[in-house]
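pls design
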C-alpha cells in the first residue's frame, strides 16, 4: 500500500502516544497540555479570547471579517479527563476560517474530580449562554470529538428533554456513545492509540458510580427522536468505530437526518493532524454540512494549512 509521507510520519508517532496514555500520570499529562495551550499559535488571521459563559470558562476563536450571527459550539475530547489542547484550538481555528464564523470552545469540568454530570451541565450552560447573547438557535451548530462527541449528543438530549430550542445541526468526530463496555470490539483488533484498559479508566472516571446505561451518559440507550441533523466521522482503524455506527443507525431509526463517514486507515480523532489530507477532507465536509443546515450559500475561504 502506497501511504503518503505525511501519514507515514504521523503513524510512526502513534505508538508513542499509545504508550504515554497508558503510563503517564494524569497530573503530568494535564500540565503538558496546559503548557501547549498557552503557546498555541493560530495565525495572524485568527484571534482567541477567554470568556466566561455563566460561570463556565470558554475560549472564543474568531477569524477576521467573520459572520457575527453564526456560531459553532465546540466540545473538545480527551476521555473526559483531559482539558482543551492546542490541537483542539487549531481544529477550531480551521473551522472558524472555513465557516467565517465564531467558534466557542467550552472548557468543561474534568473527571475524575468532577464526574458526570459536571461536564454535561457545563456544556448545556454554555449553549444557553450563547442564546442569551442574542444568537439564534438555528444559527448555532455543535461539534465535538471523542468525549466531546458524547457530550454533543447528550447535550442535545438534555436540551430536548428540557424544552430548549435546539441548534441547527451537530457533528461528532470519533464519538464515545456507549460507556458500558468496550469488550464488543473486533476480535484481535488493537487500536493504534487507545489501549483498552485506558479507555475503561476514562469511562469509570466519568461515570463516578452512575449507571452507564443512563442515556445522558451512553446515548445509544436513549431515544434520539426530535434531534437536529447529525453527521459522524470515524476512522476505520479505531476501537470506537462501532460507537459511531450505532449512534447514526439509531438516529436514522428515530427519523433523524443522519450521515456516517468511515475514513479508511484512519485512527481515533485523526483530525488533530492538520497536515493530513484526510483531516482537511473531514473538516471541510463538516463545514459544508453546517453551511447547508444554516441555510447559507457556499462561502469562499482559504484557511491556512497548519501542521499537526
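designed seq:
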Amino acid at each position: 500500500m502506497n501511504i503518503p509521507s505525511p501519514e507515514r510520519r504521523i503513524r510512526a508517532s502513534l505508538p508513542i502516544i499509545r504508550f504515554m496514555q497508558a503510563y503517564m500520570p494524569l497530573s503530568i499529562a494535564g500540565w503538558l497540555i496546559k503548557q501547549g495551550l498557552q503557546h498555541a499559535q493560530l495565525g495572524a488571521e485568527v484571534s482567541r479570547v477567554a470568556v466566561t459563559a455563566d460561570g463556565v470558562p470558554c475560549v472564543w476563536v474568531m477569524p477576521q471579517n467573520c459572520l457575527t450571527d453564526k456560531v459553532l459550539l465546540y466540545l473538545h475530547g480527551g476521555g473526559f479527563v483531559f482539558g482543551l489542547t492546542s490541537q483542539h484550538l487549531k481544529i477550531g481555528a480551521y473551522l472558524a476560517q472555513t465557516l467565517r464564523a465564531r467558534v466557542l470552545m467550552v472548557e468543561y469540568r474534568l473527571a475524575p474530580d468532577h464526574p458526570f454530570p459536571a461536564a454535561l451541565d457545563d456544556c448545556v450552560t454554555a449553549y444557553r449562554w450563547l442564546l442569551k447573547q442574542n444568537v439564534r438557535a438555528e444559527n448555532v451548530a455543535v461539534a465535538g470529538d471523542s468525549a466531546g462527541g458524547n457530550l454533543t449528543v447528550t447535550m442535545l438530549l438534555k436540551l430536548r428533554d428540557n424544552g430548549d430550542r435546539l441548534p441547527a445541526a451537530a457533528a461528532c468526530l470519533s464519538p464515545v456513545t456507549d460507556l458500558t463496555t468496550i469488550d464488543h470490539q473486533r476480535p484481535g483488533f488493537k487500536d493504534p492509540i487507545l489501549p483498552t484498559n485506558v479507555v475503561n479508566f476514562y469511562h469509570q472516571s466519568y461515570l463516578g458510580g452512575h449507571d452507564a446505561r443512563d442515556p445522558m451518559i451512553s446515548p445509544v440507550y436513549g431515544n434520539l427522536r426530535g434531534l437536529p441533523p447529525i453527521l459522524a466521522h470515524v476512522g476505520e482503524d479505531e476501537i470506537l468505530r462501532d460507537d459511531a455506527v450505532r449512534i447514526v443507525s439509531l438516529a436514522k431509526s428515530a427519523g433523524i437526518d443522519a450521515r456516517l463517514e468511515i475514513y479508511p486507515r484512519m485512527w481515533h480523532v485523526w483530525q488533530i493532524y492538520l497536515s493530513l489530507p484526510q483531516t482537511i477532507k473531514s473538516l471541510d465536509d463538516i463545514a459544508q454540512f453546517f453551511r447547508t443546515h444554516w441555510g447559507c450559500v457556499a462561502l469562499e475561504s482559504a484557511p491556512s494549512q497548519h501542521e499537526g
